[in-house]
TrEMBL record:
Taxonomy, superkingdom: Bacteria
Stored SUPFAM superfamilies: ISP domain
Cell compartment(s), UniProt: Cell membrane
Protein's name according to its UniProt entry: Ubiquinol-cytochrome c reductase iron-sulfur subunit
Originating species: Arenimonas donghaensis DSM 18148 = HO3-R19
Lineage: Bacteria, Pseudomonadati, Pseudomonadota, Gammaproteobacteria, Lysobacterales
Catalytic activities: a quinol + 2 Fe(III)-[cytochrome c](out) = a quinone + 2 Fe(II)-[cytochrome c](out) + 2 H(+)(out)
Function: Component of the ubiquinol-cytochrome c reductase complex (complex III or cytochrome b-c1 complex), which is a respiratory chain that generates an electrochemical potential coupled to ATP synthesis.
UniProt remark on cofactor binding: Binds 1 [2Fe-2S] cluster per subunit.
Length: 182
């Protein structure tokens, strides 16, 4: 009996060592974000970390949303058919739950650079017909304000939309899709 108790005490630390560390658990954990400031300031972008990736959260203006359909003929995947980059809840023109609020992983799908946020709806040196979006200066990849990739650039696919859902009007959770939150 004493031997069995001794084996039990020895086994607990050994088995506990198999569990992921607290740091490893938080690296994949969902992130709650207060978006109340974004609600007040269109064009403002917040950056949060989720699974070691930068996630951009920003509010689009009505003008920016109106420009999205006009870009479809210039995009590689305008309907976001690549399921790896766009979850089912974001398969729409804005690639988001609420059209005015975008939640996009800020990593270029070409070589993993972080594109520059260029929200202005005006011609740029890299695109004379620019309607706002993201520009990766490393290899000239461009994405619109929904994170959809342009034709003829090195990036092979749209920017990733992470799983997320709204907790309430001022908070969202990155890392849990709407259907998982119910």
């Amino acid at each position: 009996m004493v031997g069995a108790v001794g084996v039990g005490f020895a086994a607990v630390p050994f088995i506990s060592s198999w569990k992921p560390s607290a740091r490893a658990q938080t690296a994949g954990a969902p992130v709650e974000v207060d978006i109340s400031k974004i609600e007040l300031e269109p064009g403002m972008r917040m950056i949060v970390q989720w699974r070691g990736k930068p996630v951009w959260i920003f509010r689009r203006t009505p003008e920016q949303l109106a420009a999205l359909p006009a870009l479809d003929d210039r995009l590689r995947d305008p309907n976001s058919e690549n399921a790896d980059q766009t979850p089912a809840f974001a398969k729409n023109e804005a690639r988001s739950i609420k059209p005015e609020l975008a939640v996009i992983v800020g990593i270029c799908t070409h070589l993993g650079c972080s594109p520059t946020y260029v929200p202005e709806l005006q011609p740029q040196a890299f695109d004379s017909e620019w309607q706002g979006g993201f520009y990766c200066p490393c290899h000239n990849s461009r994405f619109d304000l929904a994170g959809r990739v342009f034709e003829g650039v090195p990036a092979p696919s749209n920017l990733e939309v992470p799983p997320y859902h709204f907790i309430d009007d001022n908070r969202l959770m990155v890392g849990v899709a709407p259907e998982e939150a119910a």
